[in-house]
Design brief:
By secondary structure, this protein is an alpha+beta fold. It has nine helices and twelve strands. β2 and β3 form a beta hairpin.
């Protein structure tokens, strides 16, 4: 038995970009599922899936990440291993190709859970990561446009980022995530993101925070997407997996977690979950969230947006 499930971010996805999102998610599932089919680990599968999406500029992770207010890219990533609650994460890393692989090395090569900023980049150099510029011409053009609008006074409530996202919900369709259970019954989750457009330098979202944007236990694994400030406040993915522990299956746990989030903080978000029985949970309160999955015994990848 195995299950491979990914998401490509929640928000509002324009029709002319929908197919690219779906194809990108399906390619990520294929990469992870090939590992699971051959008896490989959930950890290897979720890392492989995320790396595919980090290389795809359709998504807001790795190459193609959104730019900060100052025009730079700062990326966050995390990976979690369910059987013993292992967790590795990086925050605010720059100029590397695969932040998810760096997060895994934090887990496996250090005694730490999270490395941030220059320290994380120094660790990347130590681990042999080469310099990589993740800025694409499309993201640079978007940044120039929206930063100028802000400087012209079009966005008066900068401290209240939600006002910006209400006007431009497409900013949210970014974070990518993957969850899996392998033939050994082990679970893993991974999440990678460039963050939110025009964020302040140094801003860290939910992705690298254990139990906020990424989490895995013996009960299952979860990865979330959306505006992280709200999800951090309720430890969104841990809350979802607590619902599994209370007896809900993956789909009902996903729905319950979104309902809890809506009731207490009202944040735009989406979540994917796989439980210990290989069931999938997919739910969001935004117009769209790209998702795709493949389970043992299925002939074709199931996907949606």
């Amino acid at each position: 038995m195995y299950t491979m499930l990914v998401h490509g971010g929640a928000g509002s996805i324009p029709e002319d970009k929908a197919q690219a999102h779906l194809e990108g998610a399906k390619e990520a599932v294929k990469a992870g599922a090939e590992i699971l089919k051959s008896g490989g680990s959930a950890m290897d599968a979720v890392e492989a899936a995320i790396k595919v999406m980090e290389d795809n500029p359709t998504f807001n992770s790795g190459t193609g990440s959104v730019l900060t207010f100052e025009g730079e890219v700062e990326m966050d990533a995390a990976i979690a291993y369910g059987p013993n609650l292992d967790f590795g994460a990086v925050a605010g890393v720059k100029n590397i190709r695969h932040p998810i692989s760096l997060a895994r090395l934090v887990m496996e090569k250090t005694d730490h859970v999270l490395l941030a900023g220059q320290g994380a980049n120094d660790f990347a150099k130590l681990m042999g990561f080469e310099y990589h510029d993740p800025v694409t011409p499309q993201r640079k053009a978007q940044w120039e446009k929206y930063r100028q609008e802000f400087m012209n006074g079009n966005y008066k409530d900068w401290p209240k980022l939600r006002e910006l996202f209400k006007e431009h919900p497409e900013f949210l369709h970014g974070t990518v995530g993957a969850v899996a259970i392998d033939s050994h019954g082990e679970t893993a989750a991974a999440t990678s993101t460039g963050g939110v457009f025009l964020k302040l330098l140094g801003r860290v979202g939910d992705t690298p925070i254990p139990g906020a944007g990424t989490y895995a236990t013996i009960e299952g694994a979860a990865s979330s997407t959306g505006l992280g400030e709200g999800m951090m406040r309720i430890l969104f993915t841990k809350t979802a997996l607590d619902f599994l522990r209370d007896g809900l299956d993956a789909q009902h746990a996903a729905e319950a977690a979104i309902n809890y989030l809506d009731n207490f903080v009202g944040t735009d978000a989406g979540i994917i979950i796989v439980d210990r029985n290989g069931n999938v949970g997919i739910h969001h309160n935004t117009p769209n969230m790209t998702w795709a999955y493949l389970k043992d015994g299925m002939n074709e990848i199931s996907c949606g947006i």
